[in-house]
Amino acid sequence: MQGRHPRQTSDALGSAASQLGPRALALATQLNKGWGLPYGKTAAVLEEAFGMRVSRGGLCQAMARVAHKGEPTYQALIEQIRGSPSVTPDETGWRVGGQLWWMWAFSTSQVTVYAIQPGRGFEQAAMVLGADFAGFLVRDGWSVYRQFLQALHQTCLAHLLRRCREMILVAGKCEAVFPRTIQAILQEALRLRDRREKGQISDRGVAVARGRLEARLDRGLQPRYRSPRNRRLANHLLRERDALFTFLNCPGLEATNWRAEQAIRPMVVTRKVWGGNRTSEGAQAQSVLVSILQTCRQQLRSASSLLQTLVCSSHPKVLDITAPIR
For residue 192, is it within any domain? Predict the structure, then answer.
């Protein structure tokens, strides 16, 4: 006899016929991947709250099956990222089998895709974003992002302002002149953006003011600074010169990479709780499931119902998470 109930999660027979239901498995996935509980504590919650005794290994294998069924949905999210007009990337360290890997996050206002990769180079970023990405790239100063030659770049002003503040705190009176000058220019650019959004200045006025800011910046970068800190900052600004004020040319474009930093923050908390993944297969399952969960949050969708749909499907399939909610 083989069950055919629409809510069963597997059609296995024999000793494998005992299985978690879709709601229990969806909850376990949210606890582990969405909220960062280790497998042992996830199993403890299921036993304490619902009387279901599940091993850590059983949960790990069950979530791997959920991730396998969600793989087409994950690939569809990657395609949406590649076709987005503006993407904000970021990356942080991750552990796979005790080795240093990297957790990449690519975020838009509608979709977020995570990818755990063995490196932090252009090849790993292009596996998600595509080497020929031609939209806006709002990123920090990591040199790899500049290799996307067809993209229009906006460097994160928050990183630069933070760097200026830190330099001012430790610099002497003369050494602090340069970071104070850069800080004032960047803050003026942000105020100019705010005035435009409030309708207090015309597009022509923005263009004129932007030209003056660029001229001030160029004058500040001309001297050869003796201080190593000032010299490093000046060299970095010269490399990022064309990406500093893109947001003033394009209304609505973000001036910082806050969106990706917000997306990466839950992964940092998870890393502190249980470190990372033991295998590359587990890392791929992590990437798939957290991408689906985070995108559901952005779409104000119930991740539980979507995970139940995946669990109960007889084969992997694409679920359109970004479709309008009825």
Answer: yes
Q: Which residues of the chain have pLDDT under 70?
A: 1-18, 323-326
Please check whether residue 33 lies inside any domain of the structure.
no
Residue 163 belongs to a domain: yes
Whole-model pTM: value is: 0.91
CB 302 within 8 A of CB 54: no
Residue 304 belongs to a domain = no
Q: How far apart are CA 251 and CA 259, in angstroms?
A: 17
Instruction: For tokens 């190593």, name the residue.
Output: 228
The pLDDT, as a whole number, for residue 325 is 60
pLDDT of 13: 60
Q: Which domain holds residue 210?
A: 157-255
Domain count, the chain: 1
Q: What does the DSSP assignment read for 26-66?
A: HHHHIIIIIS---HHHHHHHHHHHH-----HHHHHHHHHHH
